[in-house]
Amino acid sequence: MSRETTDLTDDPRHNLVIPEPEAVEDLEDLALGDDYALNPEYVEMVIDAADRGDTGRLRELVHALDPADVADLMGFLSAGYREEVIPVLDPEWLGEIIAELDDNLREEVLEATPSATLAKALEELDSDDAADVIDDLDEGKRAQVLAAMDEGDRAAIETTLAYEDETAGRLMQREFLAAPQFWTVGQTIDHVREAGDRLPELFFDVYVVDPSFTPVGALPISQLLTNKRETPLAEIMEPVTEIAVDMDQEEVAYIFDKYHLISAPVIEPGGRLVGQITVDDIVGVIREEAQEDILALAGVSDTGRDATVNDIVRSRLPWLLLNLVTETIAVSAIAIFQDQIAKLVALAVLMPIVSSLGGNAGTQTLAVAVRALASKELNAANARRIIVRELSVGAMNGLVLAVVMGMATFVFYHNAKLAITVGLALVANIVTAALGGILAPLALEKMGRDPAVSSSIFVTFLTDFMGFFAVLTIAALLLR
Amino acid sequence: MSRETTDLTDDPRHNLVIPEPEAVEDLEDLALGDDYALNPEYVEMVIDAADRGDTGRLRELVHALDPADVADLMGFLSAGYREEVIPVLDPEWLGEIIAELDDNLREEVLEATPSATLAKALEELDSDDAADVIDDLDEGKRAQVLAAMDEGDRAAIETTLAYEDETAGRLMQREFLAAPQFWTVGQTIDHVREAGDRLPELFFDVYVVDPSFTPVGALPISQLLTNKRETPLAEIMEPVTEIAVDMDQEEVAYIFDKYHLISAPVIEPGGRLVGQITVDDIVGVIREEAQEDILALAGVSDTGRDATVNDIVRSRLPWLLLNLVTETIAVSAIAIFQDQIAKLVALAVLMPIVSSLGGNAGTQTLAVAVRALASKELNAANARRIIVRELSVGAMNGLVLAVVMGMATFVFYHNAKLAITVGLALVANIVTAALGGILAPLALEKMGRDPAVSSSIFVTFLTDFMGFFAVLTIAALLLR
């Protein structure tokens, strides 16, 4: 029993209603595993409480969690249970929870929350996160929420929304710590103590600016603590990496990753400092961009764990229909040479192996190329070298596979010409796969398109067609 | 001309040899695009200087870059050119450049650098980065380098190396800022000023510890600047997210991403604070882990932009050989029903379409499942719901594709039974694909294996086999 309840123990009923300080701790241990992932058992406990209509228990279970975990919990619940959880959420938390939610859950929660509550919740967020949420509202509700907000917060959000989606302007906070070149460490510390509210909740670097408010250097705030008060900033500042306000978020992520930045100043075209981006916003971008590549290569967009069957069908069917068209074109190679197959059915058995191996080899090259392009390790400076290398790899892999498959074919069918046919076709297809797998993403990148999107359908088409075509034309020449 | 050279303009030759202060700036502009990626033209300039044997120019070009960009440049050069660049590198920079290099380049540079130089270079690095480099050395050189290092640095590196690879213990720095619970903001600031060298170069949070040195809270150092000197730390500290020293780096990355951490304390099993992990080390882990999934799904490991043809063949051929085996098993379904094809060659044309669409549908499900497992959005709490949803999506996609392909088959072959055969086989295969695409990664995850590795070969085998088998058995029943 906790100390706070000792004076009440003469009435045992009190022990049942007074919340114990340890109780929250215990629930937290139950909620999260050692890896800080939400336990399935905890989700069950929430569902049980909702089934029993026990709002008190529901509130207790939900409030034992961090906002990020509440957002995670919502994703594991079905829509009916979420409707019961939303009303018990603490309004002061709501903003942070909304900011953490998956896209389609966020829409659902936004629709279910009154505009006035939403306005209050968003005032608690940084301007970049609040703008992100506002952007998801329909026109009518957006106007209502903005009207209900504090003047300053509204202006900050509207300025942020004026920048294009997925650019530095959208990621940046408009609050930051800047100091003129001629200040000392002491003057800067005093300024921070006075500025108080005008500073962001968290800041990591001081940006040193010239009279036109252009950044000329930066220093981590730990340097303010470790250097003497009289040290001029100009003496200890380091070169600064500026981010243009219209830069794509993928580029911003690349720069943060490359130079190990914690924060960076954002500048307007003239060079004027207008905001800062911090690494915590970038971690999410890096994960999302890498995951987008996985999905794009598979020809699918992620509709989230809460998407309906209809949403998912709509996101996947177009790709499959496109695949039906390309595959129909690929098999036309078979249709043209049908007579060969009628004469030797073994060709129908062996063709798919040649096609499939080509497809796999092409996908290998493609995945490596997409990764290298994304991390800017492949560009005009080494493209020729990489293409030649991929062709050599294709030739070697093709030769080894051709020998293995040719021998297996001979053992099985006792037909040397058939074995040679299959072997030659395999070399041709693996080399074709290598060429397609490296040239398709390079060409898309050069055209300013995302190399992960649509290269895989092209490479699959190419290797399927080549697999059929090579087997059947070589057969037509050798086996007549 | 720059001001520094004006007094020399009476002798025009001087203008050619005296380095201008702007020159470094100009080179930097030439080197990097607006997106901070290395310009291919700059790589050409380096190659030109090396070809001319102009060491001075080479040194100038290389030293205009940031260490991260030098590492990037090395990746774009071929081995011969790298050999010319390595000797011109400033020894004080060498450590940082080595830390940034791609794995196989790093090995090359480590071999080319004398142990004494290496020991000096590594002393400039944080203990985690230095340990990482030491770990790449062969036994003999490792002993030499460690022996040449400063006592304290050697001890720190040896302690770090005692932890397993890819765990929190390896990522953490042993230097951090901790303060007892009863201290005030002012006492903490005074401690920082005195501690000086014992603190890491960069730190973002103060960890508040109890007498047993267990973290009980944390606060960002910006709070030291914005709060009054007499404020007790216990009053303003926030709950802290501890990382266990043996936690896998992928879990650490998940926690940093989820809770938007900038730094976190690392604790030993007893709870004692032993180090800190900062977000700049985690950004790289997040990118690497996501990229590993792309490559694993494609059945390839990245050997880097500098790998030899042999390295690449060795990394890709085993997967292709495995694919040859599984595909041979899959086509055995065709071999068994060869007579069907001999009777109706159209089956040989249509089968590959059914197989290919199944493969694509399976890959879509697989990519989404792997992503959801990686971000812990799919677990025991919602697995059943997701499986049912995938099956429904498979059935709907299968029906639509079956109708389209069935009609096309009828138009082309004027054979209703053939059209029905293909349609039924397609539904069966797309549903099979959905089941395989979701169950394979779930099963691998449950077995504690990486769901991205080897699920794709299983799903491809399954859909290829099912594609052939379904078309031919249904044909055997309907078309006799």
From TrEMBL, chains A, B:
SUPFAM superfamilies the UniProt entry points to: CBS-domain pair, MgtE membrane domain-like, MgtE N-terminal domain-like
Membrane topology designation: Multi-pass membrane protein
Transmembrane segments: 391-413, 419-444, 456-479
PROSITE patterns: CBS
Coiled coil (residue ranges): none
Entries under SMART domains matching the protein: CBS, MgtE_N
InterPro entries per record: CBS_dom (IPR000644), CBS_dom_sf (IPR046342), Mg_transptr_MgtE_intracell_dom (IPR006668), MgtE_N_sf (IPR038076), MgtE_transporter (IPR006669), SLC41_membr_dom (IPR006667), SLC41_membr_dom_sf (IPR036739)
Segments forming domain CBS: 236-292
UniProt keywords, alphabetically: CBS domain, Cell membrane, Magnesium, Membrane, Metal-binding, Transmembrane, Transmembrane helix, Transport
Main location: membrane
Compartments it resides in: Cell membrane; Membrane
Superkingdom per UniProt: Bacteria
Quaternary context: Homodimer.
Family, per entry: Belongs to the SLC41A transporter family.
Function: Acts as a magnesium transporter.
NCBIfam families assigned: mgtE (TIGR00400)
Protein name (Swiss-Prot/TrEMBL): Magnesium transporter MgtE
